[in-house]
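Suppose you are handed a protein chain with no further information: no name, no annotation, nothing but its sequence. What can you learn? This example shows the usual starting point.
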Amino acid sequence: MYRFLLSRQWVILTLIALVLIPTMVELGFWQFHRHERRVAQNALIADNLRAKPAAVEELTSPGHTVPRADYWRTVTATGVFDTAHEVVVRRRTNADDRIGVLVLTPLVLADGRVVLVNRGWIPAAPDQKAYPEVPPAPKGEVTVTGRLKADETTGASGIKDLRGLPDRQVMLINSEQQSQLLDREVLGGYVEQTAPEPAGGTPELIPEPDHDSIGAHMAYAVQWWLFTAGVPVGWVVLVRREKRDREAAARTGDIPETSEPATAAV
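A reasonable first move is to predict its three-dimensional structure. Written in structure tokens, the prediction is:
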């Protein structure tokens, strides 16, 4: 009755179904784990943004790698901006997805150490080799409030650290690189400025990270699992249809129900 399942066509179809089932189950779990990571990250961002501000020196130090648990922590830093060693970070977008640069200015603390401050976004110069017109940083001692971020690396960001760039232009915000350029101790990570508000609204401060949206990963996971369930159901439907068609053909005499593939005469 079901000997047709041993035919080449049905063996291949069955093998494809057997491969699809675990593959789609795994894809579903992959999306589910992405959903879990997104939920955990949203909770971390929300908790750290609500946390009481801490002095930046309490959370990082020269050579320190900022752990994920401290990402987006609100910190304060008091010092004097060193605009002579200010650089811009190329190919960055603002809240409206316009491409420009970030203004990265060293802030010299009272003990002589430096913390990097991302003062915000400005449009790039018309000539990419030229240094853009950067709004001046506040003079004298200033207290900056911002979100603590980890050093950027190519592995984590996907941004290539290009060489041979024009003077005072970089691709990554990295305290180790800037420490070598400044020949001073630089605290690990950097501060994404949120206050004080810049005069005239420029540079544009970086907006607060999104910690409300969870994306569609859970929906994709359920979708993959529904596809998984549909494979055996579809296989059974096709088998029953094939059996019904063969029985009908056998009754009319077109194809015997127990027919086997013909063998070549010897």
